[in-house]
Amino acid sequence: MAIVKMKRLKLAAVKSEREELLRQLMLLGCVEISEPEPTPEDSEYAGILKKEAAGAYERKSDYDELCWGVTLLDKYAPQKTKLLSPRSCVSRDSVMDESNLQRFLELAKRMNVTDDHIRTIEARQSNILGNLESLEPWKNMDVPLDLTETKTCCITPGMIPATVELDDAMRAMDGSGYEAGLFEISSDKDMHYVLLVAMKDRYQDVTELLRAFGFSAASTTNLHGTVQRNIDRMNAELEELENKKKLLAADIIAVAPVRDEMKLCADRMFTKLQRAESAERLLYTQSAYICEGWFPAEDEGRLNELLSRYDCAWETSDPDPEDYPTVPVKLKNNRITRPLNMVTDMYSLPAYDGLDPNPLMMPFFVLFYGIMMADMGYGLLMMLAGYIVTKVKKPRGTSRNLFELMFVCGISTFIWGAVTGGFFGDAPFQIAKIINPNTTFSGLPSLFTPLNDTLYVLLGSMILGLIQIITGMIISFVKKTKDGHFWDALMDEGSWWLVFIGIAVGALCGFWWIAIAGVAALICTQGRDKPTVAGKIVGGIASLYDITGYFGDILSYSRLMALMLAGSVIAQVFNTLGAIPGNIIFFLIVFVIGQSLNFGLNLLGCYVHDLRLQCLEYFGKFYKDGGRRFEPLAINTNYYDVVD
């Protein structure tokens, strides 16, 4: 339960063994290959050491091809899987085997080309369907669409908005004396579809007249023959395209039996991509290369044993304090504190010279979550969900941490639900009342309830907040002392403790001299970094304003009471609504809907508020963030779990 000690690796090896050494380092899985420091231009190595391409771009392209091939199989030949079925497992040797990689890569490329043809067909189908939709209002017109004029007349299909009375347009045209006719083809809620026939010498005048009624000519470009003939032709083309599309899709579906092999090849290509990316971080000479990186100190024996089998020279060293900002961070946690990694990841990893916050945060996070949720029914659901998913689905990474944390928080939620007597709100009482209106059962036993003991819950929440804040200050005090800054710890945290103790003693006994001594200590010490005496005094006096921050932090813990109260009230309201008709079936319907909604809202809401208390109120007292995740060259897969 700490930050793993890291060591720096500097390695020089012959270029001919690069691929094999990178493969073995990947199997070892404990070395992060970092970007080398820039070589100064005036260095004797400036013209010798250089980077070389290792095919990372090509490997990324190949990996994308394989992944897209898997996606196409899921699209055209979806595979039925159980909701909680775990991922398949393969051996490390199987993932590293590249014997049939090229064959499946070519297969994936052919699938992707086939999919491109399908998408071209779909685009053409979409275009035809759009044309069919535009021709639908004209299907009763038997005048060829390419007949736009005769020797003496112009023929134009057009549209007039449905808000215009078509008879008004016809009367206006008749009254103009122009030799023209306007024929209605069809109408819908948006438009009147008409055919205009006018003498050529008056055509411009007629269209100008009709433009006042919103007339616009319809586009019939590239269409020949009657509307019905075009519709028949387009439908025939659609059918032909659909048949081609089915044949092409069948080619992709035919690959479905080797779906698992293609997934495995995608994972194989990903390992190849990782090695290529690592190779491009190296510096090369004509026949050798230089590698820099980091590894956990506990793995030094295994690393030395591996490197001793190759023609290389290496050096390991502890990082200097000035290197700490660049040293990668790896947290070492047990099964209890590991789920909190997702909280730390969302905030920020600790600095290399900082503290692992997970064991320091675990008791408070779980306790506060249980207080806010506080319901035995919800706790049971969380424990069941967390246990079943982790045992059956066997998730990994963040998903595993999420469900493990859900299980642990479910235990706390159940315990606090037992303390407050909550089981899906007051569901047992409401059910008993529906079954027997004269029942004397008044609900499950409890030590206190959020509705009847709100003030005590609020006071308890703030006391817990004070305990966590003081705990954070104690951690900071110990850390500073270990780093050789005891007097800084005494002047910073010690002065505030004197103030807190003095306020408590003064409130209880009226003896305020301890608090006054604490204030004096703050004034005398908090400006010690200022260069002048006046600056030191002003800095010390200004630090007294921080007491409002401490009170604000403590008041922030009132959210423990607020969420406990809100969740309890909402659950009871839904139960009461369901019990009004006195029908158990109606109650169960309202119960399931209401409790599901309340459970979902509180599941997320309690997590967010708990996260805020840890990251702002607690971490602010001792946590030094800014760490960079340790990312070793190791076997990482997307489709399979790798077992030794």
How are the elements arranged and paired?
Blueprint (H helix, E strand, L loop, with lengths): L1 E2 L2 E9 L3 H11 L3 E2 L22 H21 L12 E3 H5 L4 H35 L17 E9 L4 H11 L3 E8 L3 E9 L3 H9 L4 E2 L9 H27 L5 H21 L3 E2 L3 E9 L3 H8 L4 E6 L10 E2 L1 E2 L8 H7 L10 H16 L2 H18 L3 H24 L6 H9 L18 H29 L3 H24 L3 H13 L7 H11 L2 H11 L2 H21 L4 H35 L9 E2 L11 E3 L1
Parallel strand pairs: 4-15, 12-14
Antiparallel strand pairs: 1-13, 2-10, 2-11, 3-10, 5-7, 5-8, 6-7, 9-10
Structure description:
Helices cover 57% and strands 11% of the residues. With 644 residues, the chain is of the alpha+beta class. The strands form 5 sheets. Strands 2, 3, 9, 10 and 11 form a 5-stranded antiparallel beta sheet that branches. α2 (56-76) packs antiparallel against α8 (259-279), α15 runs antiparallel to α16 and α15 packs across α19 (546-556). The mean pLDDT is 88.
| Helicity, as a percent range | 55-70%
The biggest sheet amounts to:
5 strands, antiparallel
Give me the number of helical elements.
21
Uncertain residue ranges: none
Helix/sheet category? alpha+beta
Distance between the termini: 25 Å
Query: DSSP strand (E) fraction?
Result: 5-15%
**What would you call the shape?**
extended
Using DSSP, what is the number of strands? 15
Round the mean pLDDT to the nearest integer and report it.
88
Whole-angstrom Rg: 38 Å
Keywords:
Alpha-Beta Plaits, 644 residues, five-stranded antiparallel β-sheet, 11% strand, four-stranded antiparallel β-sheet
